[in-house]
Structures are given as structure tokens and as C-alpha cells.
Write a structure and sequence with these properties.
alpha/beta; globular; binds adenosine-5'-triphosphate; binds magnesium ion
Length: 305
Amino acid sequence: MADQTDNQSVRICERMDKIGRKILIMSGKGGVGKTTTTVNIANALLAQGHTVGVLDTDIHGPNVAKMFGVEGGLLLDSKDGVSIEPVSPREGLKIVSLSFAMEDPDQAVIFRGPMKMSVIKQFLADVNWGPLDYLLIDSPPGTGDEQLTVAQTIPAMTGAILVTTPQQVAILDARKSIDFARQLNLNIIGLIENMSYMVCPHCSEKLYVFGKDGGRNLCLEESVPFLGAVPMEMNLQQTEDEGGNWIENNPSSASAKEFMDIASYIHMSTKPSCSADIGYIPQNDSCSPASCASCSQNCPSKKEG
Ligand SMILES: Nc1ncnc2c1ncn2[C@@H]1O[C@H](COP(=O)(O)OP(=O)(O)OP(=O)(O)O)[C@@H](O)[C@H]1O
Ligand SMILES: [Mg+2]
């Protein structure tokens, strides 16, 4: 048993060492836009030339596949009988969700905590992610088993992105996510205020449906970087239901521009982690002693060796 656990940890290290940045997307409250943020930042990073993996750790309510236009069914395959092949709906994008292992998409997954932890670890250890610039990890609301497993299992996590609406009950829960990240020494890349406002289609006035600046003020109070304010968009949910690419289809919308800016900021403000032992192969980022703190001494020489 101990051997099996050790082997799994080694496999997780080997897989994760080939991925530049590993980012958990989380929120205290449900329905504030974590999956929307994950999918749109993934699409923005892809549009900016990066390769992206998306892991859906929302075991009970997985929405990632549908928002990427991949319908459920038994889609997880293995070429060698050992590794799981991720689903790749477009070039540069790899996604994995438990929904790909369910024959009936309407079937409820009734798992206790240890089962969920085991599934997430298996996805980290056994999915053939290959070299990627980013792994974005979508999560259910709260600070439970899923977030804890990700934070404690993935070595050299880049950090967490928190999502909230400006509403005070959402802010209350967002504070708990900040506390969770701090207790686990998980770097907080920043907070996104989603559904910040909507523009009236008749008079173009900004309407603050969920209150104004709740997320921005929380960032000031807690000294957390504010990544941006994403407005509510009339047709965004329909695009997501149809699995369309909002950023590609509506590049001039305020939300698409905001997601693109946020993706650029994430890329500029974080560094890829890489392993001296496994040999991280950079895709778009240059990994050198100057740019990579975690392998400053021996990354290039080990790679050559
Ligand atoms: N900026 C936005 N404008 C319009 N609709 C949005 C926006 N952000 C999210 N939505 C819609 O709000 C709903 C909730 O979003 P989403 O599923 O991304 O939230 P979530 O935090 O992942 O939810 P859960 O906690 O259930 O996982 C969806 O119908 C989504 O299409
Ligand atoms: Mg979600």
C-alpha cells in the first residue's frame, strides 16, 4: 500500500514537472463563475499562443466539458493500457473530467471525500498531459476535499485565482478562500470580480446588479491583487451552453477584452516551475537560471545531461 502511494506520488511529480504553470480556480460561493472563468482564461491563453490543460475537479457538477463543446459519454481512452489520454477538442487544449467516464451524463456521482481525492489523484498521476504551458484546475465551491487535494498533491503549484461576484454574501465566502490559500501557503495570483456590472442595452448605463466594487474592496482590505472586473453579458450563458468560444466569437466585448487582459497579466506575473530531475521542456516560456527560481542552480545542465 505504501509502495502504491509512493509510486503514485512519483508519477504525479513526473507529470506535473512537464507543466509550466499549475493554477487552481476557486471560490467560496457557488455559481459565481469559476467554470466560466476557467474556460475563458483557457481560451484567452490559447489565443495568446500557449498550450493549456484543464482539469475539472467538480466531481458532482462537472461543467467544463459542455462549456468546451464536448458532449459526455465514454471519451477517456488509453493507448498503452496504462496512461489515460485527455480529450483534445482543439489544438493546444487538453481536458479531463469525470464526466468523460460516465456513460449517462445525467447520472449522479455519489462519492464520499476519499473517493473524490482518489479520482483527482488518479487524474494527476495517470493522465498523459504531456508538456503544457498551463494546467487550469476548475473546482466546486468552497474549501473542501477537492481544493485540499489539489493544493497538497501538486508539487510547485503556481497559485490560486479566486472568483467572486461583488455581492456581500459572496465576499463573505471569498474571504474564506483567501484564508484557505494562506493557511496552505498557496500563492494567491489574484481575485476576479465576475458579474461586476451589466450595460443596459437601451441606455448603455452601467447597472450594478450585485452591488459595486465588493471584490475590488476585498482585495484592498486583504492585500490581494485585483485581476479585473468581468461584466455580465447577455449572450454569454447561451454561448457556454452551446460550447462556443466567447472570446473568439465576441472579441470586442468588454468581458472578452477583460479575460484577455487577465490572461496576459497571469502570464506576466507568474513564472513557470520546472524540475531539474525530470527535465521540463518549455513550450513558449524560456526556462533559464534567470527566469526560473525553482531550478536556478541546475536546470540547464541537467537538461543537457
Ligand atoms: N460574466 C457573466 N455574464 C453572464 N453570465 C455569466 C457570467 N459569468 C457566469 N455566467 C453564467 O452564470 C452561471 C454560473 O456560472 P458558472 O457555472 O461559471 O459558475 P460556477 O462558479 O462554476 O458554478 P458552480 O459553483 O456551480 O461550479 C452560468 O449559467 C454562466 O453561464
Ligand atoms: Mg463550476
